[in-house]
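Hey, resending since the last one bounced:
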Amino acid sequence: MSRAEATAFLRQAPVFSLCGVLEDGQPVLRTLHGVVVDDLLCFHSSPKGEKTSLLGRPVVASAEEEVARIPSWFLDPERACPATTLYRSVQVHGELREVADPSQKARALQALMEKLQPGGGYVPITAADPRYAAQVKGLLVAGVSLERLDGKAKLAQNRSPRERTRLAQELWRRGAPGDARAIELLRAANPSLELPPFLAAPAGFSVHPWLPASRVEEAVELLAGEYWNDVFTRDELERAHLGATAWVGATDGQGRLVATARAIADGAKHAWVYDVAVAAPARRGGLGQAVMRLLLDHPAVRGCRRVLLGTRDAQSLYARFGFVPRAAAPPRPYPTTEMVLIR
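The structure tokens again:
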């Protein structure tokens, strides 16, 4: 990874491991909550205890993430050797130092609260606030400088172009939780990846089987003013996308989100398609069809027997995929009444 990528990974890591050797030669390994503040990886602790014995000594801090497990048969029908794991990891080497400045300690503790309790619900921590002065003074805050920061992403860079494409295809076919995201990470790490058929898109655009939460505002902006969202707030639209079972989209050559679609699905009986939108300049070139094709083939949706949606004026688009008006669907052998609870 680049330094910026490694730092970003460390910032979002839920925990990290701290390893060192005590003066008597005994090793210490602890899992801790940490934050990056002022180019330091910081944690807090009681001023007494085993971790404090590492102050002034060399330590290694590490964080890692398993992206996807790759079974051998993804690449070879017989040999076990290709079995592997895609992962990302970061290590920091340095001397563990106490953070003594009260303001810096308070910033570290506040950053930790923001990470673990992002919804707020407390008065922000400052060194000058009498509500926190005793805690800021009494707690130990220690940190390791990010000067020696190493990040590694094993995302099939060592594989042949054919094998990378095969991995993307097999991840999509398997469709385990996290596999759509793994495809995006694999693709980002291998810009020259020969795209498998399910990622086909019109020239100048790219389709994405998974979108990060950081793109939700762009999706909401695409949907702003659409007639079917007349009673929903932007906050509700954001939460709807973040809670979707499947959320796909498309970007243009500048990396801007220009199409979005999402679904709620149970994987077997029903899926409901919502919020399909394409930016006006990107319409009438087949991008809407590419995004819908990707959504309907999403692992969470493809196994559903019935897929439902509502539209006022895009019947011709959805008819291409086999959608018909409900009145034209085979009737059930018993009467039913559709009911709705409006809150």
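The chain has a mean pLDDT of 95.

Sorry for the duplicate.
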